[in-house]
């Protein structure tokens, strides 16, 4: 059974938002990799009573507690005192640490401030943990509920002590992990689909949603279990799965274009250049991205892309046939293998009778084939947030449509009804 570990981070600056809690993020990642189970992460102020109380509560729940911060020389560094109070012991000055502090000051030719010697104060019964990257040592103290590790808040020092002295003691069964990436499928639908994988023994799934995409992290006790879970998940996700690990949707699209020695040109309206920006983020993208036209104003759709004036007069700019004409225009005018176009209403107000979230995407290829998609995108109550989400999701739908066209998947939805679900993404 994995060791249960709680993280207790100390510092007013963390609660105020002046400093990001990167120590907790790093410890959570490394402890999980080492096979420990991180059950809770708590941030407390530089207050002796609060720190000691939180430590006592953590010890009632976990096998081990890792504290970070509060081991420095100033008056607001209270972790040593809190640890002593929780243990019911006093502090004593360790002569070895005091000598180390004096030697370092002498080497740097700086006077040793009296308060710096506070870093040599150690709770009775605590073991010192060598600090290969700084002055303040870490502390290890066994208490009636579990073991406590106190580490400096300076990230380089915390990581050095953790790697050398803490992680080896808390390591359990090795955890293998992998990430699967999906596009245009809601988080709840992905979770329902992967329920059989979640039920597998020794397997844990975590879902991370962003506009238009869901990443699924699969953790398993051992590489064999992970391989079996990933295989099952791939089969259940089907064509909604576009990549694994750190690969992004734009890189997948570029890879497919490169395999076909093909290029793509984009025509954008509501996204205002976001689609082109995504397709030029990858180094070397010039080999497969021909260029783009931002025809934001309706007349420019005719003037720059050749969308028929009668089509625009009859339906306005927000219509699937307009998206198709824009895709043709981009492909022909920019000499690309594929034309990829988007038009719609990002908000915050409706346009020409169309509600916010109405979007049309089209792909035209050199063989005369056309594919379209008109997803029903979610509209949060916050108009500015809605506008950003609609635009970002439109880019994902456009890239995914092009991916499906190149793979021959368009027209085969992963499972019935997914596109009509208008729930707001997480």
TrEMBL record:
Upper lineage: Bacteria, Bacillati, Actinomycetota, Actinomycetes, Streptosporangiales
Top-rank lineage group of the source organism: Bacteria
Family of the protein in this entry: Belongs to the CinA family.
Family matches, as SMART domains: MoCF_biosynth
Gene3D superfamilies: CinA-like, MoaB/Mog-like domain
Pfam families per the UniProt record, alphabetical: CinA, CinA_KH, MoCF_biosynth
Organism: Actinoallomurus oryzae
SUPFAM superfamilies registered for this protein in UniProt: CinA-like, Molybdenum cofactor biosynthesis proteins
Stored InterPro entries: CinA, CinA-like_C, CinA_C, CinA_KH, Competence-induced_CinA, MoaB/Mog-like_dom_sf, MoaB/Mog_dom
Domain spans labelled MoaB/Mog: 6-173
Protein's name according to its UniProt entry: CinA-like protein
């Amino acid at each position: 059974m994995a060791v249960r570990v709680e993280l207790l981070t100390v510092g007013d600056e963390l609660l105020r938002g002046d400093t990001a809690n990167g120590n907790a993020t790093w410890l959570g990642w490394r402890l999980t990799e080492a096979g420990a189970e991180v059950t809770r992460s708590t941030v407390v102020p530089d207050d002796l009573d609060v720190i000691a109380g939180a430590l006592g509560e953590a010890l009632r729940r976990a096998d081990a507690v890792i504290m970070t911060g509060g081991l420095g020389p100033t008056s607001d560094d209270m972790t040593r005192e809190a640890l002593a109070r929780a243990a019911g012991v006093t502090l004593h000055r360790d002569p070895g640490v005091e000598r180390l502090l004096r030697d370092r000051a002498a080497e740097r030719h700086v006077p040793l401030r009296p308060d710096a010697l506070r870093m040599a104060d150690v709770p009775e019964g605590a073991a010192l943990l060598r600090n290969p990257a700084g002055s303040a040592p870490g502390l290890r103290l066994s208490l009636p509920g579990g073991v406590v590790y106190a580490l400096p808040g300076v990230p380089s020092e915390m990581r050095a002590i953790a790697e050398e002295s803490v992680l080896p003691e808390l390591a359990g069964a090795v955890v293998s992990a992998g990430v699967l990436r999906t596009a245009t499928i809601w988080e709840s639908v992905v979770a329902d689909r992967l329920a059989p994988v979640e039920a597998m023994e020794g397997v844990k799934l975590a879902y991370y949603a962003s506009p238009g995409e869901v990443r699924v992290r699969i953790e398993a006790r051992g590489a064999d279990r992970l391989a079996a879970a990933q295989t099952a998940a791939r089969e259940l996700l089907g064509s909604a799965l576009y990549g694994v690990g750190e690969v992004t949707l734009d890189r997948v699209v570029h890879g497919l274009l490169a395999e076909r020695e093909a290029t793509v040109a984009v025509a954008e309206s509501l996204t205002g250049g976001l689609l082109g920006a995504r397709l030029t983020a990858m180094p070397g993208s010039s080999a497969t991205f021909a260029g783009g036209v931002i025809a934001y104003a309706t007349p420019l759709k005719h003037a720059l892309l050749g969308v028929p004036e009668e089509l625009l007069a009859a339906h306005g700019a927000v219509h699937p046939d307009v998206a198709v004409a824009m895709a043709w225009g981009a492909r022909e005018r920019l000499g690309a293998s594929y034309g990829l176009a988007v038009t719609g209403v990002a908000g915050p107000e409706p346009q020409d009778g169309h509600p916010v979230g109405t979007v049309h995407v089209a792909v035209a290829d050199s063989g005369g084939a056309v594919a379209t998609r008109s997803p029903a995108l979610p509209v949060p109550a916050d108009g500015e947030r809605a506008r950003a989400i609609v635009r970002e999701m439109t880019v994902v739908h456009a890239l995914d449509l092009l991916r499906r066209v190149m793979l021959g998947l368009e027209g085969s939805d992963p499972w019935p009804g997914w596109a009509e679900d208008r729930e707001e993404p997480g």
